[in-house]
Design brief:
With 231 residues, this protein is mainly alpha-helical. It contains 11 helices and no strands. Helix 2 packs across helix 3. The N and C termini lie far apart (77 Å). The model has no long low-confidence stretch (mean pLDDT 79).
Length: 231
């Protein structure tokens, strides 16, 4: 949209403007981050004259002149993408260093039930490493690094009570299969023991789907309960 000039007026040419000789404005421009060359160009004054004024300003008012760096070098405010961007996740080596320092400082491994969120995070990482080792997904190089940093705690055998209970459940399921010709089934008319065994078998299938079932245990299930994973 073009605004018409009032009658009897002539549009002013910027080339007709005279130089800006206000040193106060020069100092203000300098504080706002403009360089001496830019001030000289915009104000149409000799560059050497601007330099003399700015250098005198820096000598006589150093506290005020230093604010130019603060204003000019101030980092840009975070954008919406910066606010939503998640911080980078620590690398595997960083987690290992943290776990080693924690064990050296406290004389024990981190606990998942700790009140400290940092310790809970370490305990979750440790549990993940044990799971990868049991699934056979951990490289030999990482196994050596963990063993060197934390000893032989990774890959420790399952507790005797847990192993013996799993073995007992497998034997009971095999017994039901031998007596009834089919694995335990859940039903209201069934005995409580058979319902318990049926639930245990469903849990093993769920572990298999999530790839959380120990390979040795799967092999034993395949041998003693044929077709257990197809139901």
């Amino acid at each position: 949209m073009v605004v018409a000039l009032p009658a009897n007026t002539v549009e002013e040419d910027p080339d007709d403007w005279g130089p800006c000789i206000s040193t106060a404005e020069w100092r203000l421009m300098y504080l706002r981050g403009l360089t001496i060359n830019q001030i000289s160009l915009h104000c149409r004054v000799p560059k050497e004259r601007v330099r003399q004024v700015i250098r005198h300003f820096e000598r006589t008012q150093p506290d005020l002149a230093c604010k130019r760096l603060i204003l000019h070098n101030r980092p840009a405010p975070p954008t919406a993408a910066d606010l939503w961007r998640k911080p980078p996740r620590p690398s595997w080596d960083c987690w290992l260093i943290r776990a080693r320092e924690f064990r050296h400082q406290h004389g024990r491994m981190p606990r998942i039930l700790s009140d400290d969120p940092g310790e809970r995070g370490l305990a979750t990482w440790v549990a993940g490493q044990r799971k990868q080792l049991r699934r056979g997904k951990m490289s030999g190089a990482r196994q050596e690094l963990i063993r060197a940093a934390l000893g032989d705690w990774v890959g420790i055998p399952r507790p005797v009570s847990e192993s013996s209970q799993w073995d007992r459940r497998l034997a009971e399921v095999a017994d039901v299969l031998a007596r009834k010709g089919h694995p335990p089934r859940y039903g209201k008319q069934n005995e409580r023991t058979e319902n318990t065994l049926a639930t245990w078998l469903v849990t093993q299938r769920a572990l298999l789907r999530r790839r959380g079932l120990d390979p040795d245990r799967r092999m034993r299930l395949d041998e003693q309960i044929p077709g257990w994973d197809c139901q």
